[in-house]
Specification:
Layout: H1 29-36, E1 39-40, E2 43-46, E3 59-62, H2 68-73, H3 81-97, H4 106-140, H5 144-157, H6 165-172, H7 177-190, H8 196-210, H9 215-223, H10 237-243, H11 269-280, H12 287-290, H13 304-343
Antiparallel strand pairs: 1-2, 2-3
Helix pairs in contact: 1-4, 3-4, 5-7
């Protein structure tokens, strides 16, 4: 029988289906690295003092699973990172206390030396990531960070209404434009567009504060449907949110059992669609939700019988090729024997 393929399902989701998730603040360690420092090509640039280096030039820190400590920490909710790093530090400390002496056997010394390289690398990584986490902690403990999260989660839960004081305060303080636009786009998408008078108000405030050169930016966002006045035919966010259980109240961030832990209560729409496809073998159960989302949907199942037949045919061809090769070898041997007989 043919071996089962390693990949048996391919799911393609257009970004337009889930425009909301990228606008939310990421709360995993890797996500906050991107929010605070910016991750590019699996590298993050930090100040030398953050990386424990000297000089004035920024230091590039690689972020990949070759770093055992980072591989274990990257997907953790940031609120659980401190205890995790503390536990790893204690483990390294216990290892160093086992430093061999003259009473240890050769086997014990060999084991200690074999592990030495990996523990030294982990200690160096622990030092760097502890300094980076401390810098991120300065951001998450600021007065502004929890207010932003509260505003985002109110939008996602559909309880913000017209209480947009925080957004207007950001505009008045001339906060970074991208930060303001992320909130406004999230507000628009979760409200199925802003009321015309609110839309005109925010557009006017943005242009007065940040300059009329951003008129093109606002026009592009409106054409994309990211920041626009309410209009008929907009997908009802509340229905999609409830049908797919996108907002989860009871989240265990230490031992998570739901993907909503990555945003402390919001499960990305695209992930919920993947869960439906994997757990239920397709999207039949959420067909009504798919009709509310932009773009067409389709499913194609490759017949298992056809796959099995192809595998069997390949096996048969391989067997036939082997048999033919054996026949050729036998003929060659026979020809050699006849040649020897003629020579005799």
């Amino acid at each position: 029988s043919a071996a089962a393929p390693e990949i048996d399902m391919l799911i393609l989701i257009d970004r337009e289906v889930d425009m909301i998730t990228p606008l939310c603040t990421q709360l995993t360690y890797e996500g906050l690295l991107d929010e605070v420092f910016g991750v590019n090509n699996s590298l993050v640039e930090v100040d030398p003092e953050v990386a424990g280096a000297s000089g004035t030039r920024k230091v590039k820190i690689p972020l990949n699973s070759n770093d055992r400590l980072y591989a274990d920490a990257r997907d953790r909710n940031f609120s659980t990172l401190g205890p995790h790093l503390n536990a790893r530090a204690k483990k390294i400390e216990e290892y160093t206390k086992r430093r061999p002496d003259r009473d240890n056997t050769l086997s014990e010394i060999r084991t200690f030396v074999a592990d030495l390289g990996s523990y030294q690398a982990e200690y160096k990584s622990l030092r760097v990531h502890t300094l980076i986490a401390e810098r991120i902690l300065q951001v998450t403990r600021s007065a502004d960070f929890p207010r932003r999260l509260e505003c985002e989660q109110s939008m996602l839960a559909g309880v913000l209404g017209t209480r947009t004081d925080y957004i207007e305060e950001l505009i008045a303080r001339q906060a970074p434009l991208v930060s303001v636009l992320r909130l406004l786009c999230l507000y628009s998408l979760t409200s199925n567009g802003l009321k015309p008078n609110r839309f005109d108000h925010f557009k006017r405030e943005l242009l007065h504060t940040y300059g009329y050169e951003h008129l093109f930016t606002l026009d592009n966002l409106e054409r994309l449907g990211l920041l626009c006045a309410s209009r008929r035919g907009s997908p009802p966010w509340a229905t999609v949110r409830n049908k797919l259980r996108l907002v989860v109240d009871d989240i265990d961030e230490t031992q998570p059992n739901d993907i909503a832990y990555v945003y402390s209560g919001y499960a990305p729409l695209s992930i919920r669609l993947v869960e439906q496809a994997v757990r239920h073998g397709g999207w039949q159960r959420v067909d009504d939700v798919l009709r509310m989302l932009p773009g067409p949907t389709f499913e194609h199942t490759q017949a298992r019988t056809a796959v099995a037949a192809a595998a069997a045919a390949a096996a048969a061809n391989a067997t036939a090729s082997a048999a033919a090769a054996a026949d050729v070898a036998a003929l060659v041997d026979a020809a050699g024997i006849e040649a020897e007989a003629l020579a005799a």
